[in-house]
Specification:
Blueprint lengths: L2 H21 L12 E3 L12 E3 L6 H28 L16 H16 L9 H13 L16 H20 L7
Antiparallel strand pairs: 1-2
Length: 184
């Protein structure tokens, strides 16, 4: 395990993810009929603020397509984060998650979400016991409360799910590499 290289890969993932999300932020239905919008407030302090100017007025279809692309970017971040954990030897079918290390639950959530994305369609199935359990655990562990408002998707918001999972998996790597196994 090369901790420094793993941390660099996670930092690059975070930066690339944020750049992509600047281009495909969540688009509110309030934009329908308008021709422009500023970067989401989340990015207003960034080094590359974005202003959108559309050649035609925003339609419901554009909102839907943009939000679907943004959701795909969120899913991609989870898949890549899990890949980094696997590539650098922190997780695999033969390397279990060290539950004695803080943020092991984040690593577990990332692994399980990744499996739902790449081995299923990535949508939440309210009749699937594993999906129900994962969504419930995410809601509790990430303290999502009423932020979970999607019926057919796992929660994937940038500020309450994706970035916290990135930061916590990064911390897991540091603690695991330092041999800090006294969390539980």
């Amino acid at each position: 395990m090369n901790m420094q290289e793993a941390l660099k890969a996670i930092d690059k993932l975070k930066n690339d993810y944020l750049t992509c999300k600047k281009m495909f932020p969540y688009m509110s239905r309030d934009l329908i009929g308008k021709r422009g919008a500023a970067t989401a407030p989340y990015y207003s302090g960034s080094t590359m603020p974005v202003v959108f100017h559309y050649l035609e007025t925003v339609t419901e279809e554009l909102v839907k397509q943009s939000n679907e692309a943004g959701h795909w970017i969120n899913q991609n971040a989870i898949v890549r984060l899990c890949s980094i954990l696997e590539f650098f030897g922190y997780l695999s079918n033969s390397i279990p998650i060290d539950k004695s290390v803080q943020h092991a639950k984040s690593v577990d959530i990332v692994r399980r979400l990744r499996n739902k994305i790449v081995h299923k369609n990535g949508c939440y199935d309210s009749t699937d016991g594993d999906d129900i359990k994962l969504k419930d655990e995410m809601t509790e562990y990430l303290q999502l409360g009423d932020k979970v408002n999607t019926l057919n998707e796992f929660p994937m918001s940038i500020d309450s799910v994706i970035l916290p999972l990135i930061y916590q998996c990064r911390e897991y790597i540091i603690l695991k590499s330092k041999g800090n196994s006294s969390y539980m």
